[in-house]
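FIELD: query
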Amino acid sequence: MKGVVTNKHLLPVLDRPMIYYPLQTLINAGIKDILIVTGGPHAGDFLRLLGNGGEFGLTHLNYTYQEGEGGIAAALALGEHFADGGKICVMLGDNLIEGSIAPAVGRFRRQPGGARIVLKEVEDAERFGVAEVRDGRIVSIEEKPRRPKSRYAVTGIYMYDGGVFDVIRTLEPSARGELEITDVNNWYLRRGELACEVLEGWWTDAGTMESLHRAGNLVAETGANRVDGPATHVPPPAATPERPPRRRARSR
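FIELD: result
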């Protein structure tokens, strides 16, 4: 399986550039063939910083350039030739985790096809795409709902089969003019081909100054990408509720 990381800036988190963290997440999960999707006026800085990935034990890194914004799905579409019909794991460059996604990647390798996304229970679910989960499976995904149906936020970690590029070609831009990754996930959901994992340990994005500060504090406190740390698990089917004991009729 191959990996795709999207990132357009080199802001530091604690003592290293932000992009180092998602790269290490993929490498720890056994993914060594990686594409960096970048853009903006400083795209060349990524090449100068990362080179061929030698600092991570890699012998080669791939790069592509996204013009403008366009959304996550548009960035992913640039990786079609790189994926070459195979499975891919996509990670947004501002997502950091405490532990490992290796179990999720392993299960997706064995999954015949479709998609698998990583969820995380959060207190402020209304800030994110929210997945409603029943009996261990996703039944709906809403983007930043006012009243979330669950506390499961959809993180920026997605796994897709090679058909995802055909799916992206069918998308229409949203009201904000972007190709939305939520529309991709809902396409697989409607066909019963979307599996999910729940991430243990902390997870954060670092897309705002507040969350960037929080990410630095979390990394300083526990470290990130701990191979011996928290991982992912499949949400268990809901337990069958016990029936209340039948009340005995009173004798008269």
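FIELD: remark
The two ends are 72 Å apart (CA to CA).
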